[in-house]
């Protein structure tokens, strides 16, 4: 597997992970509003922070792909 495919796969996994963390944060926030908790260790804000960290890596990978594409000679 070459580097481009690996970076693309990791980028997709991180994006999916960020989406899942965001969904968990929303569910936790709704549960907290009615007096319950879904997750014992992490609060909703902390989950959003982790999701943002993953998205930063996704953005960096996408910018790298764009840069590599722009470097290729045009026909």
Molecular structure report:
By secondary structure, the chain is mainly alpha-helical. It has one domain (3-71). Helix content is 79%, strand content 0%. The chain is elongated and about 60 Å long.
Short description:
This protein is 79% helix and 0% strand. It has 75 residues and is mostly helical.
**In terms of structural class, how would the helical and strand content be classed?**
mainly alpha
Largest sheet: none
Report the helical percentage: over 70%
Overall shape: it is: elongated
Q: Would you tell me the overall average pLDDT?
A: 88
Q: What distance separates the N and C termini? A: 26 Å
The tally of strands reads 0
Catalogue the unreliable spans: none
Total count of domains: 1
Record keyword descriptors for this entry.
75 residues; elongated; mainly alpha
Secondary-structure blueprint of this entry?
Layout: H1 3-33, H2 44-71
Helix pairs in contact: 1-2
